[in-house]
């Protein structure tokens, strides 16, 4: 075997029962180590290892999406808490309006997959943080008690969120039940659609990576995409051809649903994201 990441490549060979003939390190983001491996049987795979991060969670979600949806995701070959091996998806083409339209169609179709309640079959991860997905009947209760309050507590506990801002998030969570006239329908979302998690082929989306899926208000996905400018106008045109977006999204719920990823980024990186969080809390009256 030649290349880099030899220790991880040896673990891949042991897990799959196939020799690794070459390996090369890839960017891993929050994950400790990511390696692309060429196998003796001709397959190309990607392996992840990250101490303290249960990678079998990602494997579970990828298999769930492959089984329950038409969203293109890598195939899972091995999923254990300390090692995830998935098929390598070639890409690297630039994002184009055609690819954005394809993404809009794919995510609109994903959001048409529904459950009876909000949550998921197991707790999942967003970055390094565990998401509590206990099934909940009402959406404002789920978003307040299983997203906003816990993430504010994590950011505060890490010394990144001042007490007064934590209290503002708490007030927002308290107010949510009275601000919703009714519950949206629970939709399956990817949960982490930023540019690094989208593989583009020639004019199409080849795969969505690193999902943090659960059944949510579908606008949570759109707010994340808006926050990180993942797609442009062509995405929304294609999405709205399948699923029109209610005017309440632009009026206040985009800000509401961006509070969560901003809290995650405050917990991870601190100050650079705090002003954005405060701006949304101010607009929401918290």
Describe what you observe in this structure.
This protein has 286 residues and is an alpha+beta fold. The chain has 2 domains: 2-87, Phosphorylase Kinase, domain 1 (2-Layer Sandwich); 97-283, Aminoglycoside 3'-phosphotransferase, Chain: A, domain 2 (Alpha-Beta Complex). The protein is built from 9 helices and 12 strands. The chain has helices at residues 6-16, 56-68, 97-111, 139-157, 163-179, 219-227, 233-242, 247-269, 274-283, and strands spanning 2-3, 20-26, 33-39, 44-49, 76-80, 83-87, 124-126, 129-131, 187-189, 198-200, 205-208, 214-216. A 6-stranded mixed β-sheet has the order 1-2-3-4-6-5, with helices on both faces. Strands 7-8 form a two-stranded antiparallel sheet. A hairpin with a 2-residue loop joins strand 5 and strand 6 (83-87).
Précis, in short:
It contains nine helices and twelve strands.
Secondary-structure-derived class: alpha+beta
- CATH superfamily placement of the largest domain: Aminoglycoside phosphotransferase (APH), C-terminal lobe
Number of helical stretches of at least 4 residues: 9
Would you count the extended β strands for me?
12
The coarse silhouette is globular
Secondary structure: helix percent:
40-55%
| Spatial strand sequence of the major β-sheet | 1-2-3-4-6-5
The stretches of 5 or more residues where confidence is low (pLDDT under 50) are none
Round the mean pLDDT to the nearest integer and report it.
94
Q: CATH architecture of the largest domain, please?
A: Alpha-Beta Complex
- CATH fold category name of the largest domain: Aminoglycoside 3'-phosphotransferase, Chain: A, domain 2
Secondary-structure element order, N to C: EHEEEHEEHEEHHEEEEHHHH
The CATH C-level name of the largest domain is Alpha Beta
Please give the radius of gyration in angstroms: 20 Å
The major sheet is characterized as:
6 strands, mixed
Query: How many domains, in number, for the residues?
Result: 2
